[in-house]
Specification:
With about 140 residues, the chain is mainly alpha-helical. It has eight helices and no strands.
């Protein structure tokens, strides 16, 4: 679907709107095509379209499903660069990706970053941070 849509509008010089990208991302989620979500977000950015918090959080959810902590961390950086404020859900999803990827140190780091940004951690964030402390044997985040 996305490839066909991109070919159709690209061939006539049209630019997809943020809402269109978001609908494509949602469609990928609906059919569990997690590995297609982040490339859509990348394509949006390449075309100067900001997918917004909803699009980024769906990308982070895809990373969590796939255990792709590297892409999750990149998405958080990209959000920051585009001025999209990460919320508790953004961090929790990135932490979940780190958990599946066995990257406990990043979870603790993100908890600190949340505090620095004034983002109140949700229950999932706290659970993952506690698990990170257990896994690393370090009780100071």
């Amino acid at each position: 679907l996305y490839d066909m849509l991109g070919d159709a509008v690209g061939g006539v010089g049209m630019k997809l709107k943020p809402a269109t990208y978001l609908e494509v991302i949602k469609a990928c989620k609906k059919v569990s095509e997690w590995n297609r979500i982040c490339p859509v977000i990348d394509d949006a950015a390449r075309h100067g379209v900001n997918p917004g918090i909803a699009g980024f959080n769906l990308g982070l959810e895809a990373c969590a499903e796939l255990g792709d902590y590297k892409t999750a961390l990149s998405l958080l950086d990209e959000m920051d660069a585009l001025g999209v404020s990460s919320n508790d859900g953004s961090f929790a999803l990135a932490m979940a990706a780190c958990e599946l990827g066995g990257q406990w140190q990043w979870i603790k780091s993100m908890l600190k970053e949340m505090d620095e940004r004034g983002v109140e951690p949700d229950g999932m964030s706290y659970r993952l941070a506690i698990r990170a402390c257990v896994e690393t044997g370090e009780w100071v985040a």
